[in-house]
Amino acid sequence: MRPLLFALVVCSVALFAQAPEGGRGRGPVKHKNLQVLPDDSTLIPNMRMAATGLGVMCDYCHEQDRSLDTKPTKVTARMMFSMVKDINSKFPDGKVHVTCYTCHRGMTEPLTAPPAAQ
Ligand code: HEC
Ligand code: HEC
Q1: Is the Cβ atom of 84 under 6 angstroms away from ligand 2?
Q2: 94 Cβ neighbours under 8 A, 6+ residues apart
Q3: Long-range CB contacts (< 8 A, 24+ apart) of 64-71?
Q4: Are 77 and 61 in contact (CB under 8 A)?
Q5: Residues with Cβ < 8 Å from 113, sequence gap 6 or more?
Q6: Residue-wise over 18-54: b if at least 16 C-beta within 10 A, else e?
Q7: Which of 65, 61, 83, 86 is nearest to 74 (CA)?
């Protein structure tokens, strides 16, 4: 019985350790690798704004552990978040005027020039 009990204890410890990382644990979630965005209730709305703006799912930028910076798209997106914040800060009324959708229009690569006339 003893080895089995030990295995059970190890398993439940691992489960508890996993919970906060997935964001499904109780209590406030502390994100590990935010360099541009605030760690508050605006995070998930910002993520949805990026996903719908580019017409992608979360895994376009993320591994299962969302704090990892392994995908180049995430690294580019961080720079884009910073750029969008900067642009919006230049409007005198303090409102959000520019989002990912403003340029991307549901595509990963926005058009830089109008399509050639037919
Ligand atoms: C276009 C790329 C992109 C998409 C799509 C995206 N994210 Fe993110 N996500 C980022 C970037 C960039 C950061 C880091 C921001 C920073 O450094 O401030 C981040 C950070 C996060 C974090 C914080 C991780 C940590 O612990 O540091 C979570 C949680 C997260 N995203 C969830 C999501 C979810 C859920 C979705 C889908 C609805 C999503 N993301 C879609 C780019 C993206
Ligand atoms: C001012 C216009 C503009 C805005 C706003 C903008 N982007 Fe971009 N984004 C671009 C352009 C232009 C490119 C293509 C760059 C190139 O040609 O290499 C790009 C490329 C990207 C890429 C790389 C796509 C690929 O195929 O590798 C990602 C990821 C991205 N943007 C994320 C975002 C996110 C997330 C936001 C909102 C926070 C955002 N962008 C807002 C103009 C913009």
Answers
A1: yes
A2: none
A3: 65/21, 67/31, 67/32, 67/33, 68/33, 69/33
A4: yes
A5: none
A6: eeebeeeeeeeeeeeeeeebeeeeeeeebbebbbebb
A7: 61
One-letter amino acid identity for 45?
A: P
For residue 81 the two structure tokens come to: 């978040």
Ligand 1 mutation pick, 62, 65, 68, 80, max ligand atoms within 8 A of CB = 62
With a 6 Å cutoff on the Cβ, whether 103 touches ligand 2 is yes
| Predicted confidence (pLDDT) per residue in 53-103, tens digit | 999 999 999 999 999 999 999 999 999 999 999 999 999 999 999 999 999
